[in-house]
Amino acid sequence: MNQEPGNSGGPAIERFCIRTVMAPLSQPHKTASGTIEAAPLVLLDIETDAGVTGSTYVFVYTPMALKPVASLLGDLESLLVGSAVEPSVVSEMLQAKFRLLGNQGLTGIAVAAVDMALWDALARIANLPLARLLGAAPKPLAVYDSLGQMSPDSTAAEVSTSLRRGFQAFKVKAGHPNPVTDVEVVRAIRKEAGDQAWVAADFNQAFTATESVSRMRLLDHEGLAWIEEPVRAEDHAGHANVRAAIATPVQTGENWWGIPDMAKSTAAGASDFVMPDAMKIGGVTGWLKAASLAEANDLPVSSHLFSEVSAHLLAATPGAHMLEWLDVAGAVNQTPLTVSKGTVTAADTPGSGLTWDEKAVAKYQA
Ligand SMILES: [Mg+2]
């Protein structure tokens, strides 16, 4: 059933404000495909006739996607002005509109942006933090610092900075040309942070199942919390094969576009844990469905990027596991989360944790 969001008598959408920024990261993030110095973000504010504005951002990975996503959101504005602030109904309607084009990629990003901004508006209208609107309360969540690719020599300095900032858990991008280097980096982290430190590694889809298993012959003895995306994200059988062949738990989920992808992955037994991305899974509405599917499959849930809204979502998620910290919006957010003794807690204030620093938004406008 495709319910059209109509006028239910509740608050309605008045207008969108869409802006694009290149938000500098506090430290460059090294990946196999280059170093990220700034995050391409589309900021969406949805003004409502309740006098309350809902805010969110989406991370579009490449500056080339800023204009298309902003343009798509502009078209959605004309479609949605006058509609009720009912994110779940709006999401269902938009997904139906894009069914033939597909709900992945830019369309998925735009629909998630609308969803997250509307949930932020709902929380502010109710004068509640999002976590409380979802029936929970902000609480301390275990957090890890999502570090980039490091050489064994640079690891001590990076980890010591991270420790000073309050982190006690670390994830590193593995998959160096020489697999022995991966082991050296993991050991260098523990040398700095302590033998018992929580460490995970991310292969970022770089290998075939056979290559991953072969590399894990070395890493499997390092007591990693998880190995992430050992094979291509959509290769659910490959994930399951790696998982069956190694002792280290497998983690995946950041590249699932909506619940259908997650359902295929869980049905294949692809992973020991799940880490949906608040944007790609379909915003807050998509996350809530993912949390139910994870609970039904007894899978602990971590987050991917989007630390602000994820701190609210994980607080309301059964089996909440780890919050990923890779602060892509810190440069434009006046109310960033703070890390303390290995945890973060969402602020107990209305909304989902975003208040634009307008000076910074103007400065970094793209
Ligand atoms: Mg990853």
Number of strands: 12
Helix/strand-derived category reads: alpha/beta
Number of helices: 12
CATH architecture of the largest domain: Alpha-Beta Barrel
Pick out the low-confidence regions.
none
CATH structural fold name of the largest domain: TIM Barrel
**Averaged pLDDT:** 96
Gross geometry: globular
Order of helices and strands: EEEHHHHEHEHEHEHEHEHHEEEH
Distance between the termini: 39 Å
Evaluate the radius of gyration.
20 Å
Largest sheet: 9 strands, mixed
Q: CATH superfamily membership of the largest domain, which one? A: Enolase-like C-terminal domain
Q: State the name of the first-level CATH class of the largest domain.
A: Alpha Beta
| Overall number of structural domains | 2
For this structure, the quaternary state is: single chain
Bound molecules: magnesium ion
Helix % is 25-40%
Instruction: Report the β-strand fraction as a percent range.
Output: 15-25%
